[in-house]
Amino acid sequence: MGHALTAEQAAARTLFHVVDEHDHEAGGSTLLGFWIYLMSDCLIFAVLFACYGVLGGNYAAGPGPKDLFDLSLVAVNTSMLLLSSITYGFAMLASYRKQVAATQFWLAVTGLFGAAFLGIELYEFAHMIHVGATPQRSAFLSAFFTLVGTHGLHVTFGIVWLITLMVQIGKQGLNKANARRLACLSLFWHFLDVIWIGVFTFVYLMGMLR
């Protein structure tokens, strides 16, 4: 004869994840850990900027920034990312007022601006590769694709994170856990804006002056 399962045991067997989250009252450690992560990301981009500074003038008799860069297109791309930072700020303000629908709306607008930024960047990459300016062509292009591409990957991950957070807010509302996640993503998104301003200035503007 098998042993009969109690109601608690039967419920435990059908539970595949922990419903109750950990305590979010003392959230300073979460934000501290995220700040440490951002500092490590700063080091990665510092190395990439340094590599571009050393290799950015080595064209190997190939095309240079003046031959490849379209500043008007890059300016539009930059405005997309900067506008996304503003709309994310609106999402944070709405979250402070516990307005779920408004928070979701501004997060969606932020994601659309981020997607537009990525679309323009991919168009730029495709055009450069089409004319033969591939990463293998010169040290300049290798450093360029690595630096700008790494930033683009960060934006991609940020959009995935943003969509995931929108789903969580839709299911759970603006609880303490989601409020903290919004704050962490805010730090990450604004960090990407700061990095892009450096890319725009150091890579594109200074590249046209070489």
Automatic annotation (TrEMBL):
Pfam families reported for this sequence: COX3
UniProt cross-references to InterPro entries, sorted A to Z: Cyt_c/ubiquinol_Oxase_su3, Cyt_c_oxidase-like_su3, Cyt_c_oxidase_su3-like_sf, Cyt_c_oxidase_su3_a-hlx, Cyt_c_ubiqinol_oxidase_su3, Ubiquinol_oxase_su3_dom
Localisation: Cell membrane
Record key words, sorted: Cell membrane, Electron transport, Membrane, Oxidoreductase, Transmembrane, Transmembrane helix, Transport
TM helices/strands, residue ranges: 34-56, 68-93, 105-126, 138-167, 187-207
Origin: domain of life: Bacteria
Family: Belongs to the cytochrome c oxidase subunit 3 family.
Record's subunit section: Heterooctamer of two A chains, two B chains, two C chains and two D chains.
Protein name per Swiss-Prot or TrEMBL: Cytochrome bo(3) ubiquinol oxidase subunit 3
Organism per entry: Steroidobacter gossypii
Gene that produces this protein: cyoC
